[in-house]
Design brief:
With 742 residues, the protein is an alpha+beta fold. Helices cover 36% and strands 20% of the residues. The protein contains 23 helices and 22 strands. Strand 10 (282-296) and strand 11 (299-313) form a beta hairpin. Helix 12 (361-380) crosses helix 16 (438-468) and helix 21 packs across helix 22.
């Protein structure tokens, strides 16, 4: 194979390529298109292999047949592999098909992009699912999630193009159990699907389990080990450390041991020593996470409800079932590569890597194909290239692709937008939002590509004449900043070009140039309202404790009242050290979070800031400065100004209604502004968030291009006319679907 050493090679047959499609937008769409794939699951074609003794150059040459041979019908096209996974869990084991969440989670500020299938289920894991919602009642789920890993903690951007398996966009096949089945069933289901349905050979599979950790105070997960031993010999069931086999959502929160399934591409050998060693022939294919603990500042405690979260990369599985040594050789990439070859002036893709790819042609093919998928999916989900946050990540990706295409592949300016229809054709049945937004995606990409193309030639010329021709092997911080600030070159693109030229970038100097600007940008993104005292919040452990104690969710129906004090009682008092025990009291100066039986405070929601005010009691009061809702429990956070407070005490809620009177019109105006923008800009304008407080309103929306002066004027006129009509304001609680239909 392309990345194969002289230890062994795999001889592949004719590369199979087929265009076949499914739909993940609904279960029915998946089922209808799955019927296009003929036949039931069968064993993949056996491979002729040699385990040793052949020269590495011969191995690499043979592996390049995958990229150069004519196509034939694929037994396991991507569409069939995806559909088979979903049908297995949905039809046989009663998992609910939940469509993929957007790859750009515009309503989750903690994520740049969806990087795992579990993202949309975080409220369940954290115990924050609202009662009565579908999430709150979900027990089993399955889907194929659109994922992007570019920027933030999970960032594969720098590796894309250099090898055969990194992507910025990929699909994650996932199955979940929420407080339902646990380890035995998860392991049995995984084994059945891989060996009986996909027909992977059992003697090539290796299962890892958590081998224990003294620092964490955890013993080995012998339960998972013993379940695997019902399917595999002891030599293929391996204990691994916490780095590889203990999963955590973050520094705090739900976590637990996991089991990974690894597959040996070579076979007929003991490959146990190569597991988790980054060997290209022994690869992880499926991770089964057993979420059974919660981590806080005091350590690990068992969760009241245990969950299963599994994830398997679709592209990686396709490479196995289609007998491909590279993810980029699977059928889903073939039409994209064909279109790139048509647009390029350097010939077709050959699958070369490293030093063999001396012209960087094949690196560019892989990068451009990957980036075309990423931009198409992200833009279809409402993200747009911008100068900060996820928008800037997308702009960087697009500019990397443009540079690769024009400089390395000798494509004409405007080539990248021509790849969008191919991506849409390949994935449009599976993800109908691609078809629905194709024209908009093309327009955005064209505009971005055109804007950068005007600077690209200048940047390349500046790099070659002012930097590369100098004696220095270092791109100075000032030069890098000029490329960034004046010519629009993201710093990672400058680093990439420097690396290709055998140079390096003075990042310390660049960061010095950028420090002030970066700090302002970072502060603007992370700025939040200042709060007195400590920040308190609930996670799964706290909401579960309240439920176990028989404490009902907070009745907040009085939040719609005005100018009234509300009599209530304290059901629980929460501090940074946990809940107060019965008989304990909080004192003046303490930061507390109160759970009441009923409340007139409006918790932060819908972009509107939370109410503030006081909660008074006999001999004292709490100055409330933050109100949040977690799983139906409203947490009133503040500082006790005087007195002592205990669970069971009677209290009076007093909202600062004058402040709310300043907030309410701003909230109403977000709806008016939304209507104005839709009237002026059309259906392509979508709300992506808002903030309403007593000083201002901020309205976030996506649109394919900047508004013109005429559009701004028309929007202002629309809003002024509505205000001038003094229309009555009414409110009604309804489902999200009903609200969207208005």
């Amino acid at each position: 194979m392309r990345n194969q050493s002289s230890l062994g090679i795999m001889l592949y047959g004719m590369a199979g390529h087929a265009r076949a499609f499914t739909s993940t937008s609904s279960r029915a769409a998946f089922t209808s298109t799955a019927k296009r794939s003929a036949g039931m699951p069968q064993r993949p074609n056996k491979l002729a292999r040699a385990s040793s003794g052949l020269d590495g150059n011969i191995g690499r040459l043979l592996s390049q047949l995958d990229a150069s041979e004519p196509s034939e019908e694929v037994e396991w096209p991507t569409t069939r592999i995806r559909q088979t996974f979903i049908d297995f869990f949905a039809d046989k084991y009663e998992h609910k098909f939940v469509p993929s969440s957007p790859s750009a989670p515009l309503n989750d500020p903690t994520l740049l992009f969806a990087n795992a299938g579990m993202n949309q289920f975080k409220p369940i894991f954290l115990g924050q699912a609202q009662p009565g919602t579908e999430l709150a009642t979900l027990r089993r789920a399955v889907n194929s999630q659109k994922c992007i890993r570019a920027g933030g903690k999970h960032n594969d951007l720098e590796d894309v193009g250099r090898d055969t398996y990194h992507h910025t966009f990929f699909e994650m096949l996932g199955s979940w159990s929420f407080g339902d089945y646990f380890k035995k069933e998860a392991i049995d289901y995984a084994w059945e699907l891989l060996t009986e349905v996909y027909k992977l050979e059992p003697d090539r599979l290796y299962a890892s389990y958590f081998g224990g950790d003294e620092k964490l105070g955890l013993e080995a997960d012998n339960e998972a080990r013993d379940y695997w031993l019902q399917h595999l010999p002891e030599s293929q069931v391996l204990a691994c450390d916490a780095k590889d086999n203990f999963w955590e959502m973050g520094d705090t929160g739900p976590c637990g041991p996991c089991s990974e399934l690894h597959y040996d591409r070579i076979g007929n050998r003991d490959a146990s020593s190569l597991v988790n060693e980054d060997d290209p022939d022994v690869i992880e294919i499926w991770n089964l996470v057993f979420i059974q603990f919660n981590r806080d500042e005091n350590g690990l405690t068992p969760l009241p409800a245990k969950h299963i979260d599994t994830g398997m990369g679709l592209e990686r599985l396709c490479s196995l079932l289609q007998d491909k040594s590279s993810n980029y050789d699977i059928d889903a990439f073939t039409p994209i590569f064909d279109e790139i070859e048509r647009l390029a002036g350097v010939g077709g893709y050959e699958g070369k890597l490293g030093e063999e790819d001396s012209t960087l042609k094949d690196t560019a093919y892989r990068a451009v194909a990957d980036h075309a998928r990423t931009l198409t999916f992200a833009l279809a989900d409402g993200a747009v290239p911008d100068n900060e946050g996820r928008g800037y990540v997308l702009r960087r990706i697009l500019r990397r692709a443009t540079r690769y295409g024009q400089q390395i592949l000798k494509c004409e300016p405007g080539f990248f937008a021509k790849l969008v229809p191919v991506v849409v054709e390949t994935y449009g049945d599976a993800y109908p939002e691609l078809k629905q937004n194709q024209a908009n995606i093309i327009e955005i990409v064209k505009e971005e590509e055109e804007a950068f193309s005007t600077m690209l030639d200048r940047g390349i010329k500046y790099f070659e004449e002012e930097i590369n021709d100098s004696k220095s092997k270092i791109v100075s911080g000032g030069q890098a900043f000029f490329l960034y600030d004046t010519l629009g070159f993201p710093i990672d693109l400058t680093e990439l070009m420097a690396e290709e030229a055998g140079m390096s970038v003075d990042m310390k100097g660049f960061e010095g140039e950028m420090e002030g600007q970066k700090k302002r940008s970072r502060d603007a993104r992370l700025a939040s309202k200042g709060l007195a005292g400590e920040r308190l919040e609930f996670i799964a452990e706290q909401t579960a404790w309240l439920a176990d104690e028989g404490i009902a969710v907070t009745d907040d129906s009085a939040k719609y009242l005005w100018d009234e004090g509300l009599e209530s009682s304290v059901r629980a008092i929460f501090t940074a050290d946990g809940f107060l025990k019965e008989g304990d009291a909080a004192e003046a100066g303490n930061t507390v979070g109160l759970v009441l039986d009923k409340s007139s405070f409006y918790a932060e929601a819908g972009g509107q800031d939370a109410d503030i005010g006081t909660i008074s009691f006999d001999g004292g009061e709490v100055v409330v400065n933050d109100v949040q809702v977690y799983g139906g429990y409203i947490l009133h956070s503040g500082v006790i100004s005087e007195g002592t407070l205990s669970v069971g005490d009677s209290v009076t809620c007093q909202v600062e209604y004058d402040r709310r009177r300043d907030i309410a019109p701003n909230h109403s105006m977000t709806h008016v502004l939304n209507a104005a923008l839709r009237e002026v800009l059309g259906d392509g304008c979508d709300q992506r968030g808002s903030q309403c407080n007593d000083e201002k309103l901020r309205f976030d929306f996506s649109h394919k291009k900047a508004m013109t002066p005429v559009q701004l004027r028309d929007t202002e006129t629309y809003v002024k006319e509505i205000i001038g009509r003094s229309l009555p304001v009414s409110a009604e609680v309804m489902s999200l679907d009903d609200a969207k239909a208005i």
